[in-house]
Design brief:
Strand 1 and strand 2 form a beta hairpin. This protein has a single domain, classed as Arc Repressor Mutant, subunit A. It is 64% helix and 6% strand. The termini are far apart. With 107 residues, the chain is mostly helical. The protein has a two-stranded antiparallel sheet with strand order 1-2. Helix 1 packs antiparallel against helix 4.
């Protein structure tokens, strides 16, 4: 989980989260990713560079195009970390339920 800091830093930006949401639908070129945004292609490319540096996307060369796609390993790593947090929270809530159940007056 060495890349978690970089991944969460990259995810802090709403444009990058939107790009990842689009890539969840499938591979896309830089121009396709730039369409919905009111920013230049170089600005989108900078966002993609951050996402790629964080290991969240993969790029390949296809002629003059550089299609991007989600990096499944990075998404799985984030999901694994979040699962650990969910598990810990569930255990805390279960303990709280036990304490509250013991506090109920016996009838």
């Amino acid at each position: 989980m060495a890349n978690l800091d970089a991944a969460f830093s990259a995810l802090a930006d709403p444009t990058r989260r939107a790009i990842l949401a689009r890539l969840a639908l499938g591979e896309a070129t830089v121009m396709e990713l730039a369409e919905p945004f009111e920013m230049t292609q170089p600005a989108i490319s900078r966002h993609l560079k951050v996402l790629e540096g964080a290991g969240l996307i993969l790029r390949r060369v296809q002629g003059t195009k550089r299609p991007c796609r989600l990096a499944p390993a990075a998404v799985a790593e984030i999901d694994q970390w979040l699962a650990m947090l969910r598990q810990t929270l569930a255990a805390n809530y279960n303990r709280l339920d036990d304490v509250l159940a013991e506090m109920k007056p016996q009838e």
